[in-house]
Amino acid sequence: MNTIPRCLTTVRGSLLALGLFAGICAAGRAEEHPGRAVYVAHCASCHGDKGQGVEQSYPQPLVGDLSVKELTAYITATMPEGAPEKCQGADAEKVAEYIHHEFYSVFAQVRNRPPQIDLSRLTVRQYRNCLTDLAASFSWQGNWDDKRGLQARYYTTRRRTKENLKIERQDATVDFQFGEVGPGAEIDPEEFSIEWRGGVLAPETGWYDIVFESENAGQLWLNDMRLPLIDARVKSGDQTEYRESLFLLGGRVYPLRLEFSKAKTEKTASARLKWKRPHGTDETIPARLLSPNNFNYSLLVQRDFPPDDKSVGYERGVSVSKEWNDATTYAAIEFADKMMERIDEYAKLPKPGDQQAEQRAEKLREFCYEFAGRAMRRPLSGEQRALFVDRQFAATQDPFMATKRVMLLTLKSPRFLFPGSASEQFDDYRAAEWLALALWDSLPDELLLRAARDGQLSNQEQIAAQARRMVQHPRARAKMQGFFQQWLQLDHFHELSKSSRSFPEFDKNLAADLRTSLELFIDDVVWSPDSDYRRLLLSEEAFLNGRLARFYGVDLPENADFQKVNFDPENRAGLVSHPFLLAGLAYEEASSPIHRGVFLARSLLGRFLKPPPIAIAPTPVDLLPGLTTRERVVQQTAETMCAACHGMINPLGFSLENFDAAGRFRAQDQGKTVDASGIYLDRNGSEHRFTGARQLALFLVGNPEAHAAFTEQLFQYLTKQPVQAFGPETHAKLQESFVKNNFHMRDLFAEIATQSTLQARIIKEKNKN
Amino acid sequence: MYQVTSRREFLRHLGLAATTLPFLGNLASLGFANTTSRKQRLVIVFSPNGIVPKNFWPEEEGEQFTLKRILEPFAPYQDRMLVLNGICDKIKGDGDSHMRGMGCLLTGSELYPGNIQGGSHTPAGWASGLSIDQEIKNVLQQNPATRTRFGSLEFGVMVPERADTWTRMVYAGPNKPITPIDDPYQMFAKMYGEMKDRENLASILDVLQEDLNKVRSLVSTEDRQLLEEQTTFVREMERELQQNQGPGIGHAIPQLELGIREENDNMPKISQMNIDLMFNSFQADFTRIATLQYTNSVGQAKMRWLGIEDNHHTLSHEPDSAEEAQEKLTQINTWYAEQIASLVKRLAETPEPGSSGTMLDHTTVIWTNELGKGNSHTLNDIPFVMIGGGLGFKMGRSLKLKNVAHNRLLMALAHGYGHHIERFGNPDFCGEGVLALG
Question: Does ipTM top 0.85?
């Protein structure tokens, strides 16, 4: 990838991220190694064409750890057997190099090894979820139902007593300009107070800015209800904005309380509750992410982790490092400290009293057995209870200290960090663990553990039933969101910006709205009853608000909130023409058929593209004035060495040329009518032609390669393992059932979890024998 | 087995709070700061509601003076003592006397307008500037020779659980009050938590290795590789834990008495625990600046251990003629003096680590108050009593100054550290320059 920087020197900010796409560009076919001819002539008859051996002459595979030099000397002296003079000098050197690289060396062996299910550590996402759910499993949880907004209580005066409570209602958001008149007739506008309560759903993981805006006073609690996150009870000077940052784990609901008060000396009143999502802009926390219900604290571990390996396209825990090990230590300490702050609640300790010390200590010990078992995803054996728990309690007089040590030990144990490492059999607990990681990136819940205990995860029906149940859980929703984030490479669009000359209205807020629009769209399709993959591609609708509607030429009131609208169905179709993707896959001024083509080839058609053989800076628009983008790209990639990949990439991307750098429809480019015709040559050599987004989408919906790509990428995101490791038929079978089942994405989600569990069990059994 | 009685208490017991924990590496900061220059410490102790002037101020001026009842606990250190009469907090503006007395005491800056309504006057918000201890801390922390692990520590005793103008004395900047830590267990965690964590980690390593070996034997040969690597890292961690014992902190980790709840009657105990911790922090050179805030402005301590059932602030409103009340107030203030004297005693008895003289020779302890007198709410004649040789002032004196703005005294503290500022807080009150105390 060292070619990227030059490749993108002319491109600013946001497009650096797209280097990932641009980088995976054309590659010429490798020349055949000159040693191969020698090998075929003199060696293959005894060693087999891939060094695998030949039954009658030399059955052992040709593998070892000699260096090329040593191998050359050996061949010169001894090979071919009985006639070493046939392979000498340069020939011997060439053939040694060839076999070393192709199959002989340790590296070649690893490379050629058939994919298998590898032992993995928890990914960072899994680690965080496990810890939060582990703590939560000892406490109560709130209920995210279909009620939106917050519970509000309005009081006259600043004293919130029963008598002063005048209005009780639900507010969609906290965004009020009361001015001098106050919130209602029953309330003295001179002095009043309000309390809002409920929960807020964090749509993604990361650091949020939480903002309270008011010329009056207030206090805000979020997640930790013991200490206000924002303490603006003292109004001082002309400060009207209070901002604190907070780390939140996505897909979870956090309790929230805002107390507001206006003093007599303050002329006017206003209150606004806003946030800035990770990579977002300041916005009022929207009603769709608020609930008036009660929620409980979530224990969050903030510790930074080194990022997971993503070299194969999805996060997986295939490697460990000192940094990672240190991070797990720090995180374990942080977790244990935070657990200990509420240990009375978690361990359900009896109230302290003179006679209670021993009971409390005993309760702590029981808690520790349970804690370690849940973390390791199976109850402790007698021996493990002694090792992990009893030994800690024996080592210190202080049961609280012992409890803390049990936590540290548990969270550092390979049984927690390396799922499956301690199960000799693929038993029902292992199945529960597998399902929970696949569908939730987390620990099994109580129902799963109970099923495992009762032997209720031993056949396909039982496993499938659990998987179907689990898909309904909010944790599955969070995982599914994660999949789309990765499948559509949305992480690359964080700093999306456009040239202020050509697109003056395309600002940060618009970019943030676009992201919301795409998230709402995907959510709507995936969680609708038919959850149809085809609708994802063919939908005629989009979610727009007033700002987006104006920019993209749809009729909506200026301040309209997000709503589903018909979105130019003639020219647009679902995902592939969603303006967030189109704008993300473009330069600041010009569209980029190459980025769009690479995206279609990789994400939607599952094609493998090698890095480009040479670095080429994109031709600046001004250098060849008058050329359309399409013409310019054709010229730029005309060289033969580019053709192998760009022959596939460009004609895919060209089909979206009706959309400019901001994703707006255009009929013309540089005064010429846009040519949006595209071609795709599939793996069987059949040619497919389409013009424009809708025809492209129709082609994708009917194309088995696209179905296979979606299935495989979802599979790998869920299991963090290559689908090929699960037997030769698994992928095809899943694809088939996906198509047969009307492309139901949620069902596929559950089906992948079920089938991967069953196959992993079969393979484990086979390997044991 | 000790008795744990609440979550909070439990926390105290373990002495732990979630903080970032540089337990590996970064350990140099646990030890002594560079000791090339003369070590100088400043302690500012606050007690509320004014004093009883007739039992506080010496009659005489100069080097020969007699200590009145309240200051009597300082008798052994009279030669190292400076009593400053005539310092006035002249800051006007929003807020009542208690609020300004507190918020302007160390900042010398007005309070911002705000919504906190006092007994009279207009409501107010936070102070509009940083406090002198933080000013000096910032200077010390910028210089590697004087930089310490914490820079400053803010102690409290029975400070109410609410943040407002009456409960905050130290400011990191305008509108940036700093919460004093009145829970000795929390302060303990801040000072020693990392060491405790290292202890805990070290204690589990044997079992962890045993477990890793066991699990390693269970997985396939291909998968073993990953666990081998993990084992290596765990061993490395063990080595680091052994090696990085740090350069030492000059004293053993103190053992706190367990289970002291934060309630009025435990005030003497908490006071002593925090004074001990402050002393430890000086021994280890964790900080060279400390503040200690008893209760708050308008504080309502009930000193039952002195046989006083009344609330302090309520008592302080009694007129001068109320003999019984004045007697109780005298006892209350004497008790505060005894607390401070106990710190001074330890400093005076302990040789300065790595230097000559005693720790008191390197420390200036200042006792002050938000008011001159409780029943008049005057901000004139605010008590400032100094003990010790930290700032190099000429000690063993009773001074009767004439209406000197306290900003000039705050400047003198900075000058004592060689930080020659020409104004601090409201410049209108700095006109005559730094108060000369050398």
Answer: no
